[in-house]
Design brief:
The complex is a heterodimer of chains A (213) and B (370). Chain A has 213 residues and is mainly α. Chain A has 2 domains: 88 residues, no CATH class; 81 residues, no CATH class. Chain A contains 7 helices and no strands. With 370 residues, chain B is of the alpha/beta class. Chain B has 11 helices and 12 strands. Chain B has a 6-stranded parallel sheet with strand order 9-8-7-10-11-12, with helices on both faces. Classes of the chains: A mainly alpha (213), B alpha/beta (370). At the A-B interface, α1, α2, α4 and α7 of A face α2, α4, α5, β9 and α6 of B.
Chain lengths: 213, 370
């Protein structure tokens, strides 16, 4: 029963949502909208579980003085401090309003660190491009040539070298690139439908206890 | 004051039966909706007024203005109608060029909710055909029919990567993407995670699953726990295998990159929905020397994975993974259905191209997104 009930619930929810996609009548659509609301409630409760997991795993490692435990301590202290400031030091405002302690923490620490992480992408792109454009095969040669034309064609110097370069770059993006992308998207869309059917029909049992095949 | 006077004039003239009317007004129940809607349409006027007053009447009552709209418009949807009530409409010109300009009275329209959205008929037909094929091929699979599918190197490499981790005495890092559990890519990732966890349980290889959403953490934890129990290794399951990190994108990346650099897993499986973080994760993994297998249906992230990972599951290969890994006949039957519908769609596309070239738009219009 521990396995059948979740399967039945997922099947029933899946079939109902599928029907709701095609039927705009309020008799179906209102329940469909309600189900979407239930999802938000369920997800809200999972935050409690997530928080408990995060605190349990990290405090255990701090207690055991496990490898890199100071990082875990910094995480737990930051979490607790942010929560305390958010709950008790927002001076009656919403915690995300300008001027609250929480928004100060968010803008001063989190936003800066997040931007730093994102900015690392520039260096990673450079190192990845260096590897990608090493010509070892015919395919790699095609990739390198196409990338070169695109990069030059997208900047003013491309047009200065020859007016045909931006046109070739546009053609590469609009014809071969679009054709390949649409082929991948079509395959992926069919994969989505097939996965949905497998879950709804209950033949996808590789998730959940006792789901082994 | 001027506008008020114009309204009074409109209402008086609108209610009068001796007023001269100019152009036809069509009112119909808005199709494919929840009801309570009537759509009006009228021909463009050569000299439109500044504004139109929309007048409405129910049986046995007098016309009343319900809205004022721009004079350049040629359609309007009344969203305040009640289901089952017949309404008639009339337009009256307002402002400059609007004096004495009226439409004819529309035919009565009765708003009703629709039981089927005919705008989605094309999707319905394809879905129904797909479902029929899935059921047909599942039936064939149950009768012992077998098919051969092209080998997918990335999927074959998953067991190899786990084996390598086992030999090196290191762990396997499984990253389920950055979308929540309501995303189909994350659901597919959870299904693959079940298969991966069975392998790590069998080989006694440490498994790390950092989740970026508490809902994904909850599901992934159940999936891993179930997989370990399935292969009789419930004792090997540890509650810290799956851990919730954070729902913030780059904080999650920082944490996962930290795991890659500190724990040095021998295999990184990046399977799910990825965005800007794809290359940040894959390049860090590449620097640690781990064997990397990525899979996503986010087309724009595929080039990053192709460059930085050893194997990449592209689009449909990613969704086919669970069938390939489990080798379950019914799941393979659904793959066969997917291939068959793909052939049918390609034939339909070719037929649509031929018909369009011949000047026939029927098929193209039928499959146009509504």
């Amino acid at each position: 029963m521990k396995r059948e009930i979740p399967l039945l619930i997922s099947m029933a929810a899946g079939i109902f949502v599928l029907i709701g996609f095609f039927v705009p009548h309020p008799a179906i659509r209102d329940i469909y909208d309600d189900i979407q609301g239930w999802v938000i409630i369920v997800v809200a409760f999972t935050y409690v579980l997530g928080m408990a997991n995060l605190l349990r795993i990290n405090t255990e490692q701090i207690q055991r003085r496990a490898k890199d435990w100071p990082y875990k301590l910094a995480l737990v202290l930051s979490l607790i401090a942010t929560m305390i400031v958010g709950f008790f030091f927002s001076r009656g405002s919403h915690y995300l309003d300008d001027g609250t302690g929480f928004s100060w923490i968010y803008l001063t620490f989190y936003s800066s660190m997040s931007s730093t992480m994102f900015s690392l992408l520039a260096f990673f792109i450079a190192s990845a491009a260096f590897r990608a454009f090493r010509v070892r095969s015919v395919e790699a040669l095609l990739l390198a040539v196409a990338a070169l034309i695109l990069m030059i064609g997208r900047v003013p110097i491309g047009n200065a070298i020859h007016p045909a370069i931006p046109q070739i770059a546009d053609w590469l993006m609009e014809i071969p690139q679009n054709a390949a992308k649409r082929g991948i998207l079509m395959g992926a869309a069919l994969g989505v439908i097939a996965t949905g059917f497998r879950v709804i029909l209950g033949i996808e049992r590789t998730y959940g206890e006792g789901g082994g095949t | 004051m001027k506008k008020f006077a114009a309204w009074i004039l409109v209402l008086v003239l609108g209610a009068s039966s001796t007023t001269a009317f100019g152009f036809p007004l069509k009112a119909v129940d808005t199709p494919n909706d929840k009801g309570n809607n009537v759509t009006l349409s009228w021909p463009a006027q050569p000299h439109p007024p500044e504004q139109w007053a929309v007048l409405r009447v129910e049986a046995g009552k007098t016309y009343a203005a319900i809205d004022t709209i721009g004079g350049e418009l040629t359609s309007y949807t009344d969203e305040t109608a009640k289901n089952g009530v017949p309404y008639q409409y009339r337009l009256a010109g307002l402002g400059a060029g609007g004096a004495g300009v009226f439409s004819e009275d529309s035919q009565p329209a009765v708003p009703e909710p629709s039981w089927f959205d005919t705008g989605k008929l094309n999707v319905f037909i394809v879905i129904t055909l797909f479902l029929a094929l899935v059921l047909y091929y599942i039936g064939q699979a149950q009768r012992g029919k077998q098919w051969s599918f092209r080998p997918i190197a990335g999927l074959a490499a998953i067991e190899e990567a786990i084996g390598r981790s086992t030999e090196m005495g290191k762990g396997v890092l499984y990253v389920p993407g950055v979308q929540d559990i309501d995303d189909i890519q994350t659901i597919a990732s959870m299904i693959i995670l079940g298969n991966v966890a069975r392998m790590t349980a069998k080989y006694e290889t440490p498994l790390m699953v950092p989740a970026n959403s508490p809902a994904v953490y909850t599901v992934a934890d159940e999936v891993v726990k179930g997989a370990y129990a399935d292969v009789g290794r419930a004792d090997a399951y540890r509650s810290d295998m799956v851990r919730y990190i954070t729902s913030e994108q780059f904080a999650y990346v920082a944490a996962v990159n930290g795991m890659m650099l500190r724990e040095r897993p021998a295999a990184n499986l990046l399977l799910g929905a990825f965005f800007a973080e794809s290359l940040l994760l894959a390049e860090t993994g590449h620097e640690t020397g781990a064997i990397q297998i990525a899979g996503t249906a986010n087309v724009h992230q595929l080039p990053f994975f192709v460059v930085a990972c050893d194997y990449t599951l592209i689009g449909e290969e990613y969704y086919a993974a669970s069938a390939y890994l489990s080798k379950d006949a019914k799941l393979l039957g659904s793959l066969k259905a997917s291939d068959t519908i793909k052939i049918l769609l390609v034939l339909t596309i070719v037929a649509g191209c031929v018909l369009l070239t011949l000047g026939n738009h029927t098929l193209a219009e039928f499959f146009a997104t509504q």
